[in-house]
User: Fold this.
Amino acid sequence: MKAVSLALVSFWLFAASVAVSQTHHIQKLVISSSWGGLGPSGRSATTFLLCGDHYVQAGRKVPVALFESLESSLREPSLSKPNPVNLGISATWLESHFRAATGQTTYFDYSTGSPAQQSLFHDAFVDEKTIQQRLDRVFGSFHTDDYPSIHCELTFTDGKRLILSTASQNAYMIPWVVEQDSSKAETYNIAISQALFNILPKKFVNRSRLTDEGQFVMGLLPQLATNTASDVKQQWETLGAQNRAGDALETLKRDYQIRSAEVNSYHNLDYGTKWEKSSGPREENLHADLRREEWPKHFYLAAILLHHDQQTDGVDDLREGARKYEDLIFSIPWINEYYKAHPDDYSWLFFVHGRSFTEKAMRIFADDMKEVGHEGLISRVAPVQEQAALLEDARGDYWIILPDKSAILWRVDSLSTVMGWSSSLFPFGRCTDYQSSSGGCSGIAVSPEGEIIQP
Assistant:
């Protein structure tokens, strides 16, 4: 289709209405609407016909004024992106809707936040200067298992036809695609949605998506609240950590820059206890991403320090003991070369309760290597596990770096490349615990010189 400005499509309607005065109206409107996803699908279809001074749909009369609103919305200029004014969003709107937004934060519980955390979310949500950027992200998002669509065919009294359609999952189901003859354009004008909402029968499929009335679950307010919470999540967590482990973080600042921090009870293959009823109280840790100025810009020490009874253990151990693992990583030429060639890749060197490669990690590693048939690696790692470093790269692959500067790819999550190599060079099998949705356990070694050592 030839893409043109919606203003040209709208001009046709405007010019025709002037030429024929009040006789140029929608003669017939045929609407079909469907939804598919998790749960029962839905479909509705109906037709509106002009009959004198009103429209008729399934035996009910519909006022002409409702259709005049639809015609008027089609005469309005095109909106190439969501517009705060068109959406009715202003500083006053943001402030008046803030309290409702606190119940839609998704990424954290606003009600349990400290005064500083709650102030952070408030200031971000009501910030009118960032609303366009947030709207662009909200309306550029996609929700899985949610497939709505509306298709409208409009026939006018002079025989001309116009098609309106949308498959948008977002509030008001904008943008609308407007087609007339060979012209096709897109607009984010919610006046079209509002006009159709007023025209359609109450139980018509997708009708509720054309409005924010009743706080519809996919409406604009929940999306803005969730989007804002995502933006401030890292700061929220850091403020929470400062509130609970401020002294520890201040000490760490003497040696490191702190990118993020959080106190939680998470667990993974190298730290924490599983969330099981029989395991007793959950282990809480201070998690902090730390970096030194001289490191690659996205290389971090993932510090995990035991937190209990309102105190954090192991800060001094980290300051004294982490350096040897840092030096080990950066003493390996092929790793340094990789970071130079991939400056935007993230990596995390773990330091958990005084060491990099923990007893928990060793147990799982041993089980994994037995599972994939590389038991010989267990006796190679076990004697030096206190000196070994555990490294996670940008793609979720886990490496064990041994004190002799050789490396073992323990777990591979990437299905394309592994630290610059093709992932096909690192065959893998299923892991015994903490199995990811893709990849698995490998057990392929790399020499200090960067050569793959096949088992």
